[in-house]
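Feature request, filed as a ticket because there's no other form

It would be nice if the structure record came with a short human-readable summary line next to the tokens. Right now we just get the raw output. Example of a typical job, pasted below so the devs can see what we mean:
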Amino acid sequence: MRVSTAATAAALGAAALLASTAGTATATPQADPAGGHGRPHVVNLDGAQEVPDPGDPDGTGRFVYRISHGKLCYRLSVQDIATPTAAHIHIGQRGEAGPVIVTLNTPPVDGSSQGCIRAQRTQTPANQATVLTYWELEGIKRNPFFFYTNVHNAEFPAGAIRGQL
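Raw output as currently delivered:
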């Protein structure tokens, strides 16, 4: 039996959302998205992609990530936004707001942050925003369009800039 690409994508996206209690990961400060074996992915962030309301009209950013050997390594850079207060990867398609699946290292004003997040098997309610499950990592790898990165600040607490993976 052949399964359509859309059905596979939907199933993996749903599995990633439902499996968020199945594994963990922690962010570490050393990351080199340009290194490693996986191919780098470049995501451009801006305020127009934020929903339900637009974010910062002047803000921009770039999220470069690579998935390799069970971990996601990234570099997140921002420009022309007020001091960032948080950065995350969320599950949600373009035009949708969704729950946080993992917290990223917050970049400074007009600067960048980086980290590596190794997927783990278990996750608890207390650490679910700071860990990445195997299912979530696999979902990002196979169906990145089901996920987005955004950066928050005091002026735009729901998100100043966003980019669809």
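Something like this underneath would help us a lot:
Confidence is low (pLDDT under 50) at residues 1-32.
Residues 5-164 form one domain.
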